[in-house]
Design a protein that fits this description.
alpha+beta, 2,3-Dihydroxybiphenyl 1,2-Dioxygenase, domain 1, 9-stranded mixed β-sheet, 4 helices, 9 strands, 30% strand, globular, MMCE/EMCE_epimerase, EC 5.1.99.1
């Protein structure tokens, strides 16, 4: 009966905590906010083969291959309904994808891309919070919109791309 009494007396406390609307009242609201997951990028050693897998085997809607010289990559987008996959293949010797594929011969997940409503405000606040951004200014990404990349060591091992929505 002692255990039951302890459970009954702690129940209101649990209810009070679970009904709280915010995680921490001390966190100020941001001038920007995260949006939806735009895509998950996968580095592939054979772009034609990867494109064929998603199009011919899995039946997905797949874009044409697009070269992005300023990023050193070829891209193909696979439509998934609620998001996309971005297949990445090196364009040139200095491509960041070439060095990724040297370490990961069969390819693998390279980064995730999340939309933001104000990329400049995000950059300012993230710098203040000691999150490293891999460029001084946004670059134009595969969707023709400004993008930045956040250092994976500051994002629990994940390379995060933020894209202006």
């Amino acid at each position: 009966s002692g255990l039951l009494t302890r459970l009954q007396t702690s129940a209101p406390t649990i209810r009070t905590l679970s009904s709280s609307n915010s995680f921490s009242p001390n966190i100020p609201s941001s001038l920007w906010k995260l949006g939806r997951l735009n895509h998950v990028a996968i580095a592939v050693p054979d772009l034609a083969k990867a494109r064929s897998l998603y199009k011919d085997v899995l039946g997905a809607q797949v874009s044409e291959t697009v070269a992005l010289p300023e990023h050193g990559v070829y891209t193909v987008f696979v439509e998934l309904g609620n998001t996309k996959l971005e297949l990445l293949h090196p364009l040139g010797e200095k491509s960041p994808i070439a060095s990724f594929l040297q370490r990961n011969k069969t390819g693998g997940m390279h980064h995730i891309c999340i939309e933001v409503d104000d990329i400049k405000a995000a950059m300012t606040e993230l710098k203040e919070k000691q999150i490293r951004i891999l460029s001084e200014e946004p670059k134009i990404g595969a969707h023709g919109k400004p993008v930045i990349f956040l250092h994976p060591k500051d994002c629990h091992g994940v390379l995060v791309e933020l894209e202006q929505a």
